């Protein structure tokens, strides 16, 4: 990202408006908190608006935003012009020193080019800035402050922690209103909130941040996902293995991770007997060793080794978020070893599998990104020629399947180009869910070979592929996608049986036993509560079916079934067992 200490807004009118609103925020803050120091305040894409970082001395809280926002409105109505000025360096230093703005002074000190310093003035407020801006504060008609967060000065954990105020700004009040409605819906769906409300997972400081605990209902969903994934992969010719979370450090030296991926890896565990073990950040080296447990022949290829394998990466604490960004995750991973001639079909097969998973799981909106190398030397393992070859193979696979894609130059992994399958969370933040990577490098580093038809030793090509992504991230996606109302096959409680009165409790137990024998997950709500209370509680948990049983049902052997859309139907128990068993087996949405 650009250094916004001396930001430029460019021609986009919305960007200009948002950047101007950031100045308005800083102007309001300096009026209300004369000792506050302002750092940087750029327009941003998510949330669509801006932020400004402040040093308040003593941090403020969300409840202070109302007062700041109303001061902003006052300044907006006052019709104060945005005035541009290029000051001699000495004068700019004097102006900011007078105001006690140390962060701005540091930014000026870091500027090398020229003597003139570009500043913008709105009334008494002065900011280091190249603009452009709107004409006057009166042009700022539709904005709202959203929240506060902590942020380090220049993103450096060793520098002071600042208070970042986020806001959104639009051209019309109507657009603002639409956005606020969208935000409300996104917050309702937020997986951290729903994960807690629905008791799906927990994060506890004693265990540590980024290490979520899967509670029983969350673990049930994960088990269903893993069964689905593993069964489908077995049907498509993958072989599932189990390999340990740790390996000797030397394994990662050989793979290159110890040298090139060190910043994300946990420190090495060193033992008195000289042993050095490392938590794995990826599964590839283990799967390579599996490949090498026997001499492979061309008849064994393509060999598809799969595992839902635990990976350990030490993400910085500021980036951790619920289940979406964690420090240990289980990846739906596979490594395909094939001949160069089989490569195209294997890449296509991996894309096809990812598409199938998305279709069943309800991942309706996604885009492909083809991540390639850039021109920076020494950053990429292997020759330019190998890279070109691999990049061409990935592009051709996508094109032959009629899939559109975007190219991200310089975003490849250090060992090879990749296709990323990008999806969006409820807040429209984009993240990578699955990936297909061609790798010509690791086969060299590990001296992989197979016996070709003519008896010669040849080097296989390797494809890394994560079709459904990490379980944690997939789970966070699905919670938000369904707002907790998971499809029946995934829902931790598929049916709640609700007896109307104690007299129907025995029949309720029989209904539950029959459903359980058909492998349906069922709860009996035997509390002495009123029926509407039982129904309300089951609805809060978004349970797919509520089976109400009373005198009529006991007499007829029926149940009264309510689904989530409010349909009610009286039916024989056996018909319901057949219907729900089919719905689950077909994994209907
Ligand atoms: Zn500015
Ligand atoms: Zn891999």
Description:
- This protein has 589 residues and is α+β, with helices and mostly antiparallel strands.
- The protein folds into 3 domains: 4-189, Threonyl-tRNA Synthetase, Chain A, domain 2 (2-Layer Sandwich), CATH 3.30.980.10; 201-243 and 284-482, Bira Bifunctional Protein, Domain 2 (BirA Bifunctional Protein, domain 2, 2-Layer Sandwich), CATH 3.30.930.10; 495-585, 3-Layer(aba) Sandwich (Rossmann fold), CATH 3.40.50.
- The protein is 35% helix and 26% strand.
- The chain contains 18 helices and 29 strands.
- It has an 8-stranded mixed beta sheet, with helices on both faces. Strands 1, 2, 3, 7 and 8 form a 5-stranded antiparallel beta sheet that branches. The protein has a 5-stranded mixed beta sheet with strand order 26-25-27-28-29, with helices on both faces.
- A hairpin with a 4-residue loop joins strand 28 (558-563) and strand 29.
- Helix 1 (13-32) packs across helix 2 (65-77), helix 6 (191-197) packs across helix 14 and helix 11 crosses helix 12 (384-400).
- The protein is globular and about 85 Å long.
- The two termini are 40 Å apart.
- Residues 1-6 have low confidence and may be disordered.
- Bound molecules: zinc ion (2 copies).
- Residues 282-284, 335, 464 line the site of one zinc ion.
- One zinc ion binds at residues 7, 19, 23, 120, 127, 129.
């Amino acid at each position: 990202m650009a250094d916004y200490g001396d930001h430029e807004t460019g021609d986009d009118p919305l960007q200009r408006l948002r950047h101007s609103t950031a100045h308005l925020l800083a102007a309001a803050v300096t009026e209300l908190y004369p000792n506050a120091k302002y750092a940087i305040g750029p327009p941003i894409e998510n949330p669509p608006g801006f932020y400004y970082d402040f040093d308040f001395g003593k941090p403020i809280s969300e409840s202070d935003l109302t007062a700041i926002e109303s001061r902003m409105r006052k300044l907006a109505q006052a019709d104060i012009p945005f005035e541009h000025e290029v000051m001699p360096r000495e004068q700019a230093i004097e102006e900011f020193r007078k105001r006690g703005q140390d962060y701005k002074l540091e930014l000026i000190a870091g500027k090398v080019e020229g003597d003139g310093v570009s500043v913008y003035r709105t009334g008494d407020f002065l900011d280091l800035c190249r603009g452009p801006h709107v004409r006057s504060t009166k042009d700022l008609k539709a904005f709202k402050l959203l929240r506060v967060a902590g942020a380090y000065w220049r993103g450096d954990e060793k520098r002071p922690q600042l208070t970042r105020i986020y806001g959104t700004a639009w051209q019309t009040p109507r657009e603002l209103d639409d956005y606020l409605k969208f935000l409300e819906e996104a917050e309702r769906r937020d997986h951290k909130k729903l994960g807690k409300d629905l008791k799906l997972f927990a994060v506890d400081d004693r265990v540590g941040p980024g290490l979520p605990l899967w509670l029983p209902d969350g673990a049930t969903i994960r088990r269903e996902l893993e069964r689905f994934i593993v069964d489908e992969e077995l049907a498509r010719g993958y072989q599932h293995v189990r390999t340990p979370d740790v390996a000797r450090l030397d394994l990662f030296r050989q793979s290159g991770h110890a040298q090139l991926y060190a910043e994300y890896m946990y420190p090495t565990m060193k033992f008195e007997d000289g042993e050095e073990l490392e938590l794995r950040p990826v599964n590839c080296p283990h799967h390579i060793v599996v490949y090498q447990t026997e001499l492979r022949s061309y008849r064994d290829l393509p060999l598809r080794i799969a595992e839902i394998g635990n990976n350990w990466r030490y993400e910085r604490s500021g980036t951790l978020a619920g289940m979406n960004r964690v420090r240990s995750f289980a990846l739906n991973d596979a490594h395909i070893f094939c001949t160069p001639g089989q490569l195209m079909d294997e890449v296509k097969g991996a894309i096809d599998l990812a598409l199938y998973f998305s279709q069943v799981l309800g991942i309706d909106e996604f885009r492909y990104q083809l991540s390639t190398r850039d021109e920076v030397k020494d950053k990429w393992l292997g020759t330019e020629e190998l890279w070109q070859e691999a990049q061409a193979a990935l592009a051709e696979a996508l094109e032959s399947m009629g899939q559109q894609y975007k190219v991200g130059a310089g975003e490849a992994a250090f060992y090879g180009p990749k296709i990323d399958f990008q999806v969006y969370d409820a807040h429209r933040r984009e993240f990578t869910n699955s990936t297909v990577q061609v790798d010509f490098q690791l086969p060299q580093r590990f001296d992989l070979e197979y016996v070709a038809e003519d008896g010669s030793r040849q080097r296989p090509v390797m494809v890394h592929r994560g079709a459904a992504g990490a379980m944690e991230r997939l789970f966070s996606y699905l919670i938000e996608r369904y707002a907790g109302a998971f499809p029946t096959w995934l829902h931790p409680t598929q049916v709640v049986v609700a007896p109307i009165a104690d007299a129907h409790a025995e029949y309720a137990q029989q209904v539950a036993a029959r459903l359980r024998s058909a492998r349906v997950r069922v709860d009996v709500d035997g509390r002495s509560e009123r029926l509407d209370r039982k129904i309300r509680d089951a609805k809060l948990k978004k349970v797919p079916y509520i089976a109400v049983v009373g005198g009529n049902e006991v007499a007829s052997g029926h149940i009264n079934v309510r689904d989530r859309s409010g349909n009610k139907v009286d039916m024989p128990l056996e018909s319901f067992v057949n219907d729900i068993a089919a719905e689950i087996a077909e994994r209907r949405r």
